[in-house]
Amino acid sequence: MVCNHETCNHPHIDHAHNVLVLDHHNDHREQTAHALLSFYNVLEYAHTTGVLSTIQRIRPGIMLIVENAPSHGAYELVRLLRLNVKTAKLPVIILLDEATPTSIAAVQECGADGWLAKPFPRSKLIRKISDLLNRSVEQEWQNLPAIQSMALRYTVEAFNNIADTIANGGPIAYDEVSVACEPLIEAVNANNFMGILNGVKNHDNYTYVHSLRVATMLTLFGNAINLPPHEQKILASGGLLHDIGKMAIPHSVLNKPGKLDLDEFEVMKNHVTATIYCLEQDPTIPKGIITIAAQHHEKLDGTGYPYSLGGTKLNDLARMAAIVDIFSAITDRRVYKAAMPAEQALAIMSDEMSHHIDTNLLGMFRERFLDALRTF
Ligand SMILES: [Fe+2]
Ligand SMILES: [Fe+2]
After folding, report:
1. Which of 5, 21, 277, 332 is the most exposed, fewest CB within 10 Å of its CB?
2. Are residues 231 and 318 in the same domain?
């Protein structure tokens, strides 16, 4: 979505994923905005007039400024931003015409967070933005109660390591995931976990956000029905790992704003078999985790994927995972859609999905989750 700042009043937009692009070259600015479209809400500016007050109002998650922006110029503008308490920590990337020792020194001296020299590949731009957004989000985690902060830090590290391992073709290390999930389980059992769900939502790796939300809510679910600790560990680890095969799905499909067409949906479905393949590379992975991953898109009436399993063929832990996965997907915020309130999502699930999901389990999840929400 490209918003004109004068007319942008989208109530659903989360400010953390607003990227403000300040570039007076119309073609360059539009190219940059276009490259970011499926990932962020892009706010385009051609001039600096009034930009400081508008930044305070719009509160972008990050700002890209072309080096020779008119009137102030990028370096002076960043110095002004750093003087204001509301914008002092706003991540800023300066877009250079050329990376010379002088310009790189100027970037550092003015207090900007990074630079890119034109022309830059789209992947590099997105990576840079994502890293900076995540740096600010992860810094905020330090303000949470220790156990919640640990749950977030351990799981994001394990998740990043899994991504690296998969990229290098190696087997994932279940040990590390298992240890990373311990603070999460402890936080849920102490009913001290809402900061985890809130703290992760602005993170810029959507697969991680979704996986951690599923892991947290699945653990909560297991706790609510008094599952023993080893099964809670399977639920937490299974939640974190259930979609890791999405790392093999092209960005254009994974992050497509809106509905996938039939061909794209076929590609997306492959994430389940890709996940199973990744998990099976480590022989120490408990079977329950593979079952959760394999069956979380199956449906009671046999219309799910990839195996069209139904009824009694569906494992209980996987039935729980299917409920939490759907609930998480509906209540997750994406660039192109607002988060749906929990009560509304649960009502839709019981009214419209009763032939797909286990309604007894849904009732138990509903009760426990709404209880938890009321506590905070
Ligand atoms: Fe999935
Ligand atoms: Fe999922």
Report:
1. 277
2. yes
